[in-house]
Write a structure and sequence with these properties.
Strand content of chain A: under 5%
CATH architecture of one domain in chain B: Orthogonal Bundle
Order of helices and strands of chain B: HHHHHHHHHHH
Oligomer: heterodimer
Helix content of chain A: over 70%
Radius of gyration of chain A: 23 Å
Number of strands of chain B: 0
Radius of gyration of chain B: 23 Å
Distance between the termini of chain B: 40 Å
Order of helices and strands of chain A: HHHHHHHHHHHHH
Number of strands of chain A: 0
Largest sheet of chain A: none
Strand content of chain B: under 5%
Largest sheet of chain B: none
Number of helices of chain B: 11
Shape of chain B: globular
């Protein structure tokens, strides 16, 4: 099969043109002015109060959403795993299926639920509870993020949990560990890779979204994704837009590096 | 017993959370009133209107054709790439796999703007072909991700046995290798198709103003108010996928059953 290497040449050329060169171009535009001289000003624009607040709010909301997803998904994955279903693909389908309804429409449906006279408030009124003003607030955006990205947290954790052998858990129980000890010392460390990939798959799209904030935040809540989108689609300033994208990419890389470090530590521990 | 009950309630609540918006969209597709927040009585009229609305039908056609072509081309490039990479040494293979991870780990918005910058900087007019190429780009990694594990499981001896028995390399490939990796190729294709169908962000940046997919059309209507025909269309798409999945699931269950029976005989 040695002569088969040439089969990957179309792929290599394709990825060079459509992945590598475009990224280099974003870096080039991010580090130059309109007349092509080198500058770091585009990166420093992140310190501008509007951009800084947008980035800070994006980080805050995406961290909150990621944590909520983790707290909701982990017990669910544990329960699904304990049911020992024969048909795994069915579970996966149930959580993938909503994605076949257009993502924008599903988010728009949340407007109906969260509006001041929407489904949720009608329900609260019916139960004689105080109503909530959610639409066009950061809270509504958190709702949208958790809703859209929750499956990406559930599936990786579930996939890791089903691979943990019953023998490992039984051995721990036989050696006298109670349920919580087994969970803390065996299940949790072994499920770490799933948690890490779940966190990345929720955090990155939440941090960079501009659609969810446009639909559920009105124009009142501005995230860093909205700022970058406007730079490219409305203002047509590639240099500022690229500079801000570079800052965003650095944030993503840093958070991934931190996660990868934790992942390695967990792997190291599981040897013991 | 209490614990079991609690677990079921928890699953039910999460499913309610995931499916509530879908339920609302289905209800809205039967709503007589054009307003999202008023119930005007039951009607089928949006389903009739839908097929008369050329704008939406065109967007649907564009969406499906881009999804199909991008999934097909990505499957060919991705499968060939996986086979090629599989015969490479570890270091170049790791580098190439790393590159294929970039669009999956990178934010959609960055992939979108970087492709837009590429097309515009080389004076390439944005339109159908730029969207198609962009979709192929983000689909290829999904194909590689589905095909690579199947290639790893492949027993090299069967291929060499075919060669020893006189098969030409290409004949041996079609008769021995391809059938083995086909499930991976197929799931790569289906995954790509789904991703392309549901994509908004990358299409938004690479489409220019000449073409619309369903996603970009919906986005343009967010402020003006969504046309109820859209709810009808998405309800139709959702139910057809649901029915298709149920049939496929039933069939694979039946096939498993069949195999088991044969094995016990």
């Amino acid at each position: 099969m040695k002569s088969r290497k040439w089969l990957s040449f179309p792929y290599i050329i394709w990825m060079a043109i459509f992945i590598i060169i475009p990224l280099l171009m974003v870096i080039y535009y991010g580090l130059t002015t309109k007349d092509g001289t080198f500058t770091l000003d585009n990166l420093f624009l992140i310190a501008d109060p509007i951009n800084r607040n947008a980035l800070w709010l994006s980080i805050k909301l995406s961290v909150i959403s990621t944590l909520i997803c983790l707290v909701l998904a982990y017990p669910l994955a544990l329960i699904l795993n304990s049911m020992k279903l024969k048909n795994n693909s069915f579970i996966i389908l149930i959580f993938i299926l909503p994605m076949w309804m257009n993502f924008l429409l599903r988010t728009i449906a949340w407007q109906n639920i969260l509006e001041n006279t929407g489904v949720l408030n009608t329900l609260l009124k019916f139960l004689h509870l105080p109503t909530l003003e959610l639409i066009n607030t950061p809270a509504a955006i958190v709702f949208g993020m958790v809703y859209n990205f929750l499956p990406f947290m559930i599936l990786p954790i579930y996939n890791v949990l089903i691979k943990i052998s019953d023998d490992t858990i039984n051995a721990a129980r036989d050696l006298g560990a109670n349920y919580f000890q087994t969970f803390l010392k065996i299940i949790l460390p072994l499920s770490f890779p799933g948690i890490i990939s779940g966190i990345t798959m929720v955090f990155v799209p939440s941090l960079t979204t501009f659609v969810i904030s446009t639909i559920l935040g009105g124009s009142k809540v501005v995230l860093i994704g909205n700022v970058i989108e406007q730079q490219f689609k409305m203002i047509n300033n590639w240099h500022t837009g690229s500079g801000l994208s570079l800052v965003l990419m650095v944030f993503i890389l840093i958070s991934m590096a931190i996660l990868a470090k934790y992942d390695k530590e967990a792997e190291g521990k599981s040897v013991w | 017993m209490v614990k079991r009950f609690g677990q079921k309630v928890y699953i039910a609540l999460i499913l309610l959370f995931l499916y509530a918006p879908i339920f609302i969209l289905i209800v809205l597709s039967f709503n007589e009133s054009k307003s999202r927040s008023k119930w005007g009585g039951f009607t089928f009229k949006w389903y009739v209107e839908l097929f008369k609305n050329d704008n939406i039908m065109n967007a649907l056609y564009t969406t499906l054709i881009i999804a199909f072509l991008s999934a097909l081309i990505a499957t060919i490039i991705g499968t060939a790439a996986s086979i090629g990479m599989n015969s490479m040494k570890k270091v170049p293979r790791t580098i190439l796999m790393g590159i294929s991870n970039i669009p999956m780990l990178n934010a959609d918005i960055v992939t979108g703007i970087s492709l837009m910058v590429l097309f515009l900087a080389f004076n390439y007019t944005l339109g159908f072909s730029s969207v198609l190429m962009s979709h192929i780009t983000f689909n290829i990694p999904y194909v590689i991700l589905s095909v690579m594990p199947k290639l790893k499981q492949l027993n090299k001896n069967t291929y060499e046995a075919a060669l020893d028995l006189g098969a030409s390399p290409s004949y041996a490939f079609y008769k021995v290798v391809l059938p083995e990796i086909f499930p991976g190729v197929l799931s790569g294709f289906l995954l790509s198709f789904t991703m392309s169908l549901d994509d908004f962000v990358i299409t938004h940046f690479t489409r220019g103003n000449s073409i619309d997919t369903l996603s970009t059309k919906i986005y343009a209507e967010v402020r003006k108010g969504i046309k109820p025909e859209m709810y009808a269309l998405s309800t139709l798409l959702f139910t057809s996928v649901l029915i298709l999945l149920i049939i496929v699931n039933r069939r694979s269950d039946m096939m498993k059953h069949h195999e088991k029976n044969r094995a016990t005989k």
